[in-house]
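TA notes. Do not distribute before section.
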Amino acid sequence: MKKLALYSIFTLFVGFGVKAQDCETLVKDCEVLLKGKEKNFVSDGQVYTAFLDREKAEFKTTFFGGTTYRIAATAGTDDEYVIFTVKDLQGNIIFSNRKYKNSSYWDFKVPITIPVIIETELDMDKKITGCAVMMIGFKR
């Protein structure tokens, strides 16, 4: 019985370690997407990470008028696993990469300062569980 309990605890910690390590790798991949080939986007300093299992994660931020932003997201080697949707505080959809084959990043310029909610979820047709990483950057 003791062996079973110890094995269960060990498996639990190893499992969390694998998830954390997987997320750390994805953060580096997401940084590459955020900077892009032209390397003219700078991170806002936040890394939005969630382990998703058939669910959505929400992140709140503010976009400042006149600024060009890039949202980048990844959940694995196929960068089209993550769907991100930008909504205003009333829930109106401003943008979703779902309409663009789940593009792993998107650039846009906002005309006015606006607080937003960004929802991330995995594309259930491609992946049902795993770590999703999103970063937001602005153009230099």
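Switch to the second chain here.
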Amino acid sequence: MPNQSRPATLKSMATELGLHVSTVSRVLNGDPTGVERAASAEVIARIRALAKELDYRPNTQASNLKLRKSQEICVLMPRLTDLVMATIYDSIDSAAEQAGYLTFVSNTDDQQPRQMARAEHALRRSVAGLIVGDSHTGDTQPLLDLLARKQIPYVLVSRQIAGHLTAACDDELGGWLAAEHLYRLGCREVAILAGERHASTGADRTRGFIRYYREQGISLRPEWILNGPFDSHTGHQQGAYLLALNPRPQAFFAVNDFLAIGLMGAARDKGLQPGKDIAVVGYNDIPLANELIVPLSSVRLPLAQMGRQAVELLLKRINGESAESTILTPQLQARASSAVLPKAG
């Protein structure tokens, strides 16, 4: 018997059985056109029995390198602590599994060098394709340029970059809807918690919001448009700063719900109540938004659908089919945090 202190290989089993390694490979790799030509029924049975006895596991990475194909999809996400990104990934994983693919996720911390390193690691595994959730705005896209040059199937999710296939939401429209809501409420002095400058999501939402007010003949104060990370800590800090101004903004648009929740915490600390003293609108409509003491108005995105669409587009690219970007439609969910016109600060 072969040395069982090491995992069984095609070569070791071929030696044990007195067969050529290619014969064992055809049988165990399930080549439907080669199995019957490779061996008799008796030999096939012997090979499979030994593989079962030794608990043989195919080396999928080696097979992928040889065949230049894989059933794995790499998903690059900026951070999985973000509930929105985690929700999108969950739907990606489910849709991929239904299509016969496995996914693995790499957390890039929204840093381009880390993104490139994680992607190159995935390419060494000969993945079938990549879904990219952390592309940056601007003309320079090192990773996307690399994937296009190597003809690796890829698709963006939740981010939009001109010239690249994506499954995303119309974030500019979402910002426009938030602005329309606050304007019709009577709010004219409005601040924006705009998120990180490099993220297309925050930039598009901010652009749509500003555009609506400009169309009404109102220019928002640039010093009231603050950039920073997409988290509640930043929302609290920026909210504390803006609420301490004299005059202060009547209303606040935060480009994600965590920024809005942090801002509402800063309002609480100052004895102010959203929906009474100030108006607040967030973005993404995470489940927590409706469960707060003062339910948060928010722009709802079809996150699960976005993930499914990303997989569908990627599979088209993997199969060599033509594909066009899918841009989903957001909806405003008005709640108590923006129920009344606050007095000007």
